[in-house]
Design goal:
The protein is an all-alpha fold and 246 residues long. It contains ten helices and no strands. The protein starts with a helix and ends in a 5-residue tail after the last helix.
Length: 246
């Protein structure tokens, strides 16, 4: 309760500083929080803001699922096999340092400006990060637990469920939380470059109109949605899967 109150006071302090800075600037380029809030309400009332938020969230969700599934499979395989790790570590480093903008542009050039290409471009940018984190998790699996499972003949599925997944869960959640923060930013770039809807498209549209108020309205609305997912889903899940640890 105390922590929540402190965060609330910190947020109020930030809003107060923003309000004072906007009043001192007296410019449309730095609107006060009240104007941004009004823009959010107008966007909700017109239905435009919820529509574009939903479109972007759909792309974020699809990219997130693909990235986590493929990245986890690659990471666990590399973490459990020294041969595969030595063979493909250079590939992983290459894709880790490949600029997101380059990947997006190349995907659009090679595969066309379609929805599947947008999801592919975002996923390619995130898969290496997930793979690196899950590789570390696979490397730290406790061999004693695996030996006990083998002695008691748990079988592959029960060993995976009761021994492997609980140990990998913290790494998977770390990848999920960092992935959510990274993926939605890349999705906005994809929408800005090659989509005709979504939050990124709207931000680009209002950038051309130099309407900073609406740009901030879309930005903070989407941040609020992502924070809600973090607080309502990822943090409780993190506490739940970590209960088995001392």
């Amino acid at each position: 309760m105390m922590k929540a109150a402190q965060r609330g006071l910190s947020l109020l302090l930030l809003l107060a500083c923003w309000q004072l800075a906007a009043g001192a600037a007296g410019s449309r380029l730095l609107p006060p929080p009240s104007d941004v809030f009004d823009a959010i309400l107008r966007g909700v009332a017109s239905g435009e803001l919820p529509h574009h938020l939903a479109v972007t969230l759909r792309r974020v969700a699809a990219s997130f699922v693909v990235s986590m599934a493929v990245g986890a499979a690659i990471g666990v395989a590399l973490g459990r096999s020294r041969v595969l790790d030595r063979l493909f570590d250079g590939w992983l480093v290459l894709f880790l340092h490949l600029p997101a903008l380059v990947v997006i542009i190349l995907c659009f050039v090679w595969f066309g400006m379609v929805e599947a290409t947008a999801i592919l471009a975002v996923s390619i940018n995130k898969i290496p990060n997930v793979a690196v984190i899950l590789r570390e998790g696979a490397r730290t699996l406790d061999q004693d637990f695996l030996d006990v499972a083998r002695v008691y003949r748990l079988g592959a599925l029960r060993t995976l469920r009761h021994v492997v997944l609980p140990q990998l869960a913290p790494y998977a959640l770390a990848a999920a939380r960092t992935g959510l923060a990274l993926i939605w930013k890349i999705v906005l770039v994809v929408e800005l470059l090659g989509r005709s809807d979504g939050v990124g498209f709207q931000i680009n549209l209002y950038f051309q109109l130099f309407d900073v108020t609406v740009i901030l309205a879309y930005t903070f609305a989407f941040i609020a949605v992502v924070l809600a997912i973090e607080l309502a889903l990822l943090q409780p899940l993190d506490r739940r899967v970590g209960r088995w640890r001392r």
